Automatic annotation (TrEMBL):
Highest rank taxon of the organism: Bacteria
Protein name in the entry: Aminotransferase class I/II-fold pyridoxal phosphate-dependent enzyme
PANTHER family: HTH-TYPE TRANSCRIPTIONAL REGULATORY PROTEIN GABR, TRANSCRIPTIONAL REGULATORY PROTEIN
Domain HTH gntR-type: 11-79
Family, similarity comment: In the C-terminal section; belongs to the class-I pyridoxal-phosphate-dependent aminotransferase family.
Organism: Hamadaea flava
Keywords annotated in UniProt: Aminotransferase, DNA-binding, Pyridoxal phosphate, Transcription, Transcription regulation, Transferase
Record-linked InterPro entries: Aminotransferase_I/II_large, HTH_trans_reg/aminotransferase, PyrdxlP-dep_Trfase, PyrdxlP-dep_Trfase_major, Tscrpt_reg_HTH_GntR, WH-like_DNA-bd_sf, WH_DNA-bd_sf
SMART domains in the record: HTH_GNTR
One Pfam family per UniProt: Aminotran_1_2
PROSITE patterns: HTH_GNTR
GO molecular function annotations of the record: transaminase activity
Length: 455
């Protein structure tokens, strides 16, 4: 095994060693459960310092590919063990709840019916060749007319996470640094870990990423910034135009940094479209998802940005699925062009805003602290995460633990509540949530469902 690893290494830096071992794991040449040679043995064979190999092992550990078992040495992990490490997997409640507010999904009653769109499809085939453009021309024209800035290229993929995964895989390598909001959507951190990269947290206020925090993160040598410009999950913060301008000014002096915007709740947000692409179109990728507004099962998101960033994504996809269903694209176009959809979306925006404001007001009456500026989520401060989850479960209420959202410790425990699913009974729910927010574990020792600082 020692010879297998050392022969695979062409770059003897930590990043090169990690990349070589990663290829061997994914190819199956290093199977799950295999015990790796010692750090010193590999360092001696490669003629590098043990510190270099240890750094490579750290990246592989964060990526979930290997784990150190004390005296048992370092072993290759299998897919089942990788799943147990995912932050995303820790959001679901452990038991069924009468009121499940942990999901982060939209209210199905506020989504459009697809029946009429399906009837209008007609019998004309939508795909004439496997080499057809991946985006329907009519859909592309509509999207370009409504994009927040002049994008050189658009493509359609299977949801926002698919878009983020493909962009990260195309442009992020082992050892790279990626700037992320703190807190942020847990799968973003999982994707960065899977790439063997390091998430560098940047702080938020009620206007978006703070300039001071971004400046510090840029000095750390990051090559990508991933942010949610509107209805930030979990806090609900939407970036202001002024803040976007300030952030763009900082990024101007770091021309190699790619900006990736996840506009996951685009058409149901109250805030207007804001994008760093208005200032930095040559290196901003904007992702617009329709899961929250038109339905999760539509499974579509549009990615727009410079050819230099998107071309590798589109080209690599041709070797896999090739394109997202043109049948679904046709439905998307029909919905986006329909006046009835515009009316429904306006109704959904107003209703989600009503629900947010009603629960925020009721929580304030109870003395609880929460934010929910936009979108469908509410970020509630709690004295102790685990105690709050247990207290809510006793009332048949499930919410998402806050720790998986943290790129770095926030200093205050939280839970995320999908307020978009709460239609009525705000005072009663607020009373239950506020009591849970005050709950502390027996003995007063702090506990969490997900350890701080781990990924």
């Amino acid at each position: 095994m020692l010879q297998l690893i050392t022969k695979a290494v062409t770059d003897r830096g930590a990043q090169g060693i990690a990349a070589a071992v990663s290829r061997l794991v994914h190819s199956g040449e290093l199977p799950a459960g295999a015990r790796l040679p010692t750090v010193r043995a590999i360092a001696r064979e490669l003629g590098v310092s043990p510190t270099t190999v240890s750094e490579a092992w750290s990246w592989l550990t964060r990526a979930g590919l290997i784990a150190t078992r004390g005296r048992s040495g370092t072993i290759v992990l299998g897919g089942d063990r990788l799943r147990s490490r995912l932050r995303y997997a820790r959001l679901a409640p452990g038991v069924a709840a009468a009121t499940d507010l942990s999901t982060g999904v939209p209210d199905h009653e506020l989504l459009p019916e697809l029946t009429e769109s399906l009837r209008r499809l007609g019998a004309e085939p939508l795909t004439t060749s496997y080499l057809d453009d991946p985006v329907l021309p009519a859909l592309e024209a509509h999207l370009l007319d409504h994009w927040p800035y002049a994008a050189q290229q658009l493509t359609v993929v299977d949801g926002a996470l698919d878009a983020l995964d493909r962009v990260v895989r195309a442009h992020v390598r082992f050892g790279d640094r990626v700037l992320v909001e703190n807190p942020t959507f847990p799968p973003i951190l999982d994707l960065i870990d899977a790439a063997g990269a390091t998430a560098v947290p940047v702080a938020l206020d009620r206007q978006g990423i703070t300039p001071d925090s971004l400046a510090l993160g840029l000095e750390a040598g990051a090559l990508m910034l991933i942010l949610q410009p509107r209805a930030h999950n979990p806090t609900g913060v939407s970036m202001t135009g002024r803040r976007a301008s300030d952030l763009a000014a900082l990024l101007t002096s770091h021309p190699s940094v790619i900006v990736v915007e996840d506009d996951h709740a685009a058409d149901i947000t109250s805030a207007p479209p804001v994008s760093l692409g208005c200032f930095l179109p040559g290196r901003t990728v904007h992702i617009r998802s329709y899961a929250k507004s038109l339905g999760p099962d539509l499974r579509l998101a549009v990615v727009g940005g410079p050819v230099s960033v998107l071309a590798p994504v589109v080209d690599r996809r041709m070797l896999g699925p090739g394109w997202s269903s043109r049948l679904l694209q046709h439905i998307l176009l029909d919905l986006l062009a329909s006046p009835s959809t515009a009316i429904l979306l306006e109704t959904a925006r107003s209703e989600y805003a009503r629900r947010r404001l009603a629960l925020l007001a009721a929580l304030a009456q109870e003395g609880a602290v929460a934010t929910a500026d936009d979108g469908i989520n509410l970020w509630l401060e709690v004295a102790d995460e685990r105690a709050a989850l247990v207290a809510l479960a006793a009332h048949g209420v499930a919410v998402a633990p806050g720790a998986p959202f943290e790129a770095a410790p926030l200093g205050q425990d939280h839970v995320r509540v999908t307020v978009g699913l709460v239609r009525d009974g705000f005072p009663e729910l607020a009373s239950v949530l506020a009591a849970a927010a005050r709950a502390v574990p027996r003995g007063g020792a702090r506990s969490r469902s997900f350890p701080r600082g781990t990924r």
